[in-house]
Amino acid sequence: MNDRRTTLSLLPGAAAFAGPAANERRLSTLGALGRIIIGGTPPADDPAHFGGSIPFITPTDLDGRRTIDSAARTLTELGARLVGASRVPNGSVLLTCIGADLGKTACAGVDAAINQQLAALVVDPPNCPRYVYYDLRSRQRELRSAAGGSAQPLLTKSGLVRIPIVLPPPRRQQAIVEALGALDDKVELNHRLCDTLAEIAGARFRAQFVDVSPPSDWKRVRLGELLDLDKGLSYRGELLGDSGMRLLGLGDFGARPELDVDDFPRRYAGRHQPRHMIVPGDLLIANTDLTQRRELLGAPLRVPDLGESPMLFSHHAFAVRFLPGRECWREFVYFALQQPEFRARAAGFAAGTTVLSLPRDAVLDHVIALPPERLRLAFIEVTRPLLARIDHARQESRALVELRDHLLPGLVSGTLAPPRVGGPRAVP
């Protein structure tokens, strides 16, 4: 027994434990918990495979939600039959197993199919899938290490089955899930609030500036007349770690133009120039897409307040630098970059064979119509409070996420007893 407790205490991601629950925990592996499914994609050259009713989950859909109950892409029954081995049931634990997002986790909220960048763990009873999800989400760095330090890290199925995991008794697993789930419930409530506020602001922009014919007193200008672009830092992967400034990269862009509350960018200890630095409120534009689907090219990102400034950004993005006297157009440009016209232009200018890139001129030469000052002021009078409320909700959510991740090792190790939400301790 002492040898087993020593092994548990040395397991990466699991704290040493000397409490009364130590004898109840056991060391297992992901492969012993149930089935591991690796995803796949039907041939992309046949449109009959896509656009049906079956959610087709990809890493882009792992956007900070605890449960993925919808996906940006779908498959038809024909497409799903071609990747039948990639079908996953509701409740599966999803894990990104390749690339910059390696280690991101979520739970499937519907029966779905997954692409080849994802793995799914179908956890057999009596173990709790949500407990496995919480355990893995706290160990992203460990999973990255297991994948190796190459430019394109990869966790294979054979590697996944050997990943160790500490398992408390099922009753305790459920109590841990309930305790952490209460925090996540508030995070998801904030997430929905932010989505609603962003939709309101976006709808106001479209109604006021897009869905109307510009009157004669509006001025058509190139973005290059308002701003310039700096390309980010070409970094060395071996210098990413726990020291230095935070580095925002391509993995921080997603379907929403805001950083996910679970995403704290890694730190970079290498050299950089002043042009590689950004502060909260700055705008970034993704200039690279590794998928050939052009989903991220031209996507904007508003730099969040993570409690430290300045930060760095990678060469996969441009930083927007407003020209003197043009800073007042920040909010207007932010929403203009989200419009389908610009995103289609960015996709059309994509260059490259395996990795797509967006030229600077494709951004700077994009033409927009600037309204008179009175309309701009009326817009920001409504929009700035909405963006400020989004920022406040996201800061609150990040504090809750930090609390959750701080509690998780103690709950897993047994040094903390999970409470019953709204009542006494659930498990002694």
Automatic annotation (TrEMBL):
Domain Type I restriction modification DNA specificity: 29-194
Alphabetical UniProt keywords: DNA-binding, Endonuclease, Hydrolase, Nuclease, Restriction system
A molecular-function term among this protein's GO annotations: endonuclease activity
Class of this enzyme: hydrolase
GO biological process, one term: DNA restriction-modification system
Any Pfam family: Methylase_S
EC annotation from Swiss-Prot or TrEMBL: 3.1.21.-
Official protein name in the record: Restriction endonuclease subunit S
Biological source species: Nannocystis pusilla
